[in-house]
Amino acid sequence: MTAAPSPAAAAHRIRIGSAPDSWGVWFPDDPCQVPWQRFLDEVSEAGYEWIELGPYGYLPTDPARLADETARRGLAVSAGTVFTALHRGPAVWEDTWRQVGKVAALTRAMGARHLVVIPSFWRDDRTAEPIESPELTAAQWRDLATGMERLGREVRDEFGLRIVVHPHADTHIDTEENVTRFLDATDPDLVALCLDTGHYAYCGGDSVRLIQTYGERLGYLHLKQVDPEVLAAVVREGLPFGPAVRRGVMCEPPGGVPALEPVLSAARELDVDLFAIVEQDMYPCPPDRPLPIARRTRRFLRGCGA
């Protein structure tokens, strides 16, 4: 287990962190990405004390080594991340659990308590080609809800972790309609929400309204913004998410939407402990670009009282 962050950081109800995503990391191994050592060095240098694991295999998967590498940089882990395709029914459970088990074990070993669960894309994440329908049938919605509840129960019972489901562009949990349908169909005791402000805005949602309406479901935050002008072109042209990111749809705050001050204010009104992890999608990006953005973003968030 890693060393705990400073008492001052622990005193905040909202704990700010960052993630490999903000360094252009989408895959366990890719020549377009910075080495993991550089990510750890720079995220600490930028003033963050919390990180996510990112794609399994990007950071060391040996808990002792990862604990040493993070602790000596003053970092601790807030969550691991998994992708699931539970709308495909019970046939995918074994493969899903095999993947989840590896990530959950490392997450627990690092002292974290959350597992971020992202639904599978209906487009290929490298080629952007459609691989299934963007709309779920009623039966698939039932499989998604019951599968996610099972995942929440088994992750809790086996690893002591809480799953937080992350609505995401180019998945079946994306728009306000689909997010609220999913939340209404799942047990609050088993399934919480990871609200990503950028993805929700990308898909037309209002983060503040979602927090005010479903605040009891909020278990985790991802902070990012979208450039409204780029987003308008993305919508007009029907671009997939990957090409949209390469065009710069996710932008540095405070240059985009939603405004993060009202989001953080609404989250504070819940009076619960939350992680708020900065995640600015920038894949691929020049290796020298992330650190200056990360520093400016941390200063901006301090100005928001976070």
Automatic annotation (TrEMBL):
SUPFAM superfamilies linked to this entry: Xylose isomerase-like
InterPro entries in alphabetical order: IolE/XylAMocC-like (IPR050312), Xyl_isomerase-like_sf (IPR036237), Xyl_isomerase-like_TIM-brl (IPR013022)
Domain Xylose isomerase-like TIM barrel: 40-302
Taxonomy, superkingdom: Bacteria
Gene3D superfamilies per record: Divalent-metal-dependent TIM barrel enzymes
Secretion signal, residue range per the UniProt entry: none
Stored Pfam families: AP_endonuc_2
Listed name of the protein: TIM barrel protein
Organism: Streptomyces pactum
Lineage, broadest ranks: Bacteria, Bacillati, Actinomycetota, Actinomycetes, Kitasatosporales
